[in-house]
Amino acid sequence: PPPALRLVPDFPDGGEPSAERLRRQRVCLERLGRPPAPTDVRGTVQVLGCPGPKEVTVRYTFNEWLSFVDVPAAPLPPAPVAAGDPPAERYSFSLCVPPSLREGSSLHFAIRYRSPQGEYWDNNGGRNYTLRCCGSPGGGPAAPPAAGSPPPP
Q1: Could you tell me which residues come within 8 angstroms of residue 142 by beta carbon, excluding any fewer than 6 positions away?
Q2: pLDDT digits (tens, 9 = 90+) for 102-142
Q3: Which stretches of sequence are listed as region Disordered (predicted)?
Q4: Structural domain boundaries of the chain?
């Protein structure tokens, strides 16, 4: 049988978003479920609180942005705020992973926040957030086969 696959984050785990980063970007990935499940990816987002309607979505792709899906994030109860931190609102999201995802492929995502003040993105500093599909026992993605060689069994 083929090895079980897992999704491995290809970005540093920064933990909680900093108050300064939240003020600057207005939206930050708060936490990604650990480990991301091979069938769905769950996480939480923080946005800078503001009056009026708002929309938080996660845009993701499995084919290097040839196509993408926007998934709405759902509001969560407020978390305690430390003195001096901006008033943040929290949202949760879940991304469905297709069963066709294979070892060596990637899932890329970015977070969009729309409010009366404008549209803001957290795209990991322009690099997007990336999860690599790896075989569980081996740890890293498999190298692609050499040109002209048959696919692995």
Answers
A1: 103, 104, 135, 152
A2: 888 999 999 999 999 999 999 998 999 999 988 765 444 33
A3: 1-20, 134-153
A4: 5-133
